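Why should sequence recovery work at all? Because a backbone constrains its sequence more than one might expect. Tight turns favour small or flexible residues, buried strands favour hydrophobic ones, and helices have their own preferences. The token representation captures these environments compactly. In the example below, the structure is given first.
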């Protein structure tokens, strides 16, 4: 029996001396020991900002650190050979690789084209605020460094629906491109700003059959070259769901296998938007539970004023748990990023307990919570700030508890605004399985909970070491469990 556990193995400011592909290869044994079953790696292909790019300003999907393009051969994380070698090593340790896929946009075109556009209102993308006009735009991608190897496809303005800069006018804005598919935006899941097809850079137009075919060809090449086991799909609310469905079906049918797929659809105000996306994609992919992340953030901000009994309200893990990937934070929510909503340090052990030690959802760790990190950036607050994130001290033990003990019937006691808990009864065929979790966001907490008669008479201790006393389970399988002020305790059988 295996409890799935993912890790986002990077963050926005990854700056360690050891290149990431080498680090993840060298850490494969350690990750397997934690119980990690899947590693999400960042975009592996050449980006317009070269070897300093996180990867989301993608330029050439076929260049995995092999060609001299954008003033570099290797990407920020290493070379193509190192990437492939890391995936192979992870697989040998029983760990799947989840590759990050960016299908929304391209950046850093090689040539200008004279194209017809109309400018749109950035707050209402359906409203044009100019007549048709000709501009010079960077819309032609010829990939001269690759010289047609792997694919001879040339991207031009017929492959894009929008651009953000008129070179001849030196004017920024959102320009809808007039091509043979019209100058309207694609039908995408998000209706924010009227139509949220356009996000950034050169917006890919999947209505062009040649674009769809090249991306399918690339998917085949990518899998045959690297052998990943799954995909993380970036920014899906800005992309035609019809195209993504078609691409995923093509990959599944071509290789006669199921890939693990998780999509980023960043929503923090209405879980129905996530449920609607599940409907239009017919369950083809997992979704990150951004609603739970938002609840965790609010709980940390509001301390004892937050009602812990509602921590799972309006979340995907509560309404559709089989397709929920839960997380505490990621590269978009970390400090100094555009969607900054970082869960306060005091609450992180509680938050990780909520995603790691429950039956529902597939949890995803975040690299800095395991390793820590330190970085400086201007950020979106307008001033240079130094950030240091210290790893979550309890995280290793929580991962071990998930791997070794998190089995059996779950009983919930989410019935108090400041103190909640649950138990996992465990299984007879798994030694030491079963535990009781209790947490509070105010003063000390106490809660009567049933863990099952299979534990009757056993002595339980706090695996996290916050509470020093011992507790005995009564003959009916009940006990009064406790936790310290603003803390979490996980009670397991003493051995």
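From this structural description, the recovered sequence reads:
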């Amino acid at each position: 029996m295996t409890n799935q556990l993912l890790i986002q193995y990077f963050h926005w400011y990854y700056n360690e001396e050891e290149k990431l592909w080498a680090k993840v290869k060298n850490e494969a044994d350690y990750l397997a020991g934690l119980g990690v079953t899947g590693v999400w790696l960042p975009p592996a292909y050449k980006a317009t900002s070269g070897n300093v790019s996180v990867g989301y300003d993608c330029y050439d999907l076929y260049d995995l650190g092999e060609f001299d393009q954008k003033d570099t051969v290797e990407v920020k994380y290493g070379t193509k050979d190192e990437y492939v070698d890391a995936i192979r090593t992870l697989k040998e340790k029983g760990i799947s690789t989840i590759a990050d896929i960016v299908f929304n946009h391209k950046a850093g075109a090689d040539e200008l084209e004279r194209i017809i556009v109309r400018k749109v209102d950035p707050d209402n993308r359906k409203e044009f605020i100019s007549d048709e006009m000709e501009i010079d735009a960077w819309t032609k991608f010829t990939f001269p460094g690759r010289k047609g190897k792997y694919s001879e496809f040339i991207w031009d303005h017929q492959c894009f629906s929008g651009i953000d800069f008129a070179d001849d006018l030196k004017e920024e804005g959102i320009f809808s491109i007039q091509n043979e598919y019209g100058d309207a935006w694609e039908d995408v899941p998000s209706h924010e700003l009227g139509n949220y097809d356009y996000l950034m850079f050169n917006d890919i137009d999947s209505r062009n059959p040649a674009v769809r075919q090249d991306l399918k060809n690339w998917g085949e090449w990518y899998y045959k070259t690297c052998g990943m086991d799954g995909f993380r799909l970036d920014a899906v609310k800005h992309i035609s769901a019809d195209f993504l469905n078609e691409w995923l079906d093509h990959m599944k049918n071509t290789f006669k296998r199921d890939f693990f797929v998780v999509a980023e659809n960043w929503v923090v105000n209405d879980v129905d938007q996530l449920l609607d996306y599940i409907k239009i994609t017919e369950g083809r992919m997992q979704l990150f539970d951004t609603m739970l992340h938002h609840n965790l953030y609010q709980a940390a901000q509001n301390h004892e004023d937050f009602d812990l009994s509602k921590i799972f309200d309006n979340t995907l893990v509560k309404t559709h748990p089989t397709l929920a990937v839960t997380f505490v934070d990621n590269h978009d929510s970390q400090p100094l990023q555009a969607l900054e909503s970082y869960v306060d340090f005091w609450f992180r052990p509680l938050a990780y307990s909520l995603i790691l030690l429950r039956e529902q959802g597939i949890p995803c760790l975040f690299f800095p919570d395991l390793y820590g990190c330190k970085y400086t950036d201007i950020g979106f607050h307008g001033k240079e700030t130094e950030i240091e994130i210290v790893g979550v001290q309890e995280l290793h033990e929580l991962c071990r508890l998930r791997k070794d003990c998190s089995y059996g019937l779950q009983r919930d006691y989410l019935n108090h605004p400041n103190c909640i808990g649950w138990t996992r009864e465990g299984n007879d065929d798994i030694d030491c399985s079963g535990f009781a979790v209790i947490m509070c966001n105010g003063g000390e907490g106490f809660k009567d909970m049933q863990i099952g008669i299979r534990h009757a008479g056993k002595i339980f201790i706090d695996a996290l070491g916050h509470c020093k006393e011992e507790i005995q389970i009564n003959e009916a399988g009940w006990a009064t469990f406790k936790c310290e002020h603003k803390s979490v305790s996980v009670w397991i059988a003493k051995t």
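A few observations help interpret the result. DSSP finds eleven helices and 27 strands in the chain.
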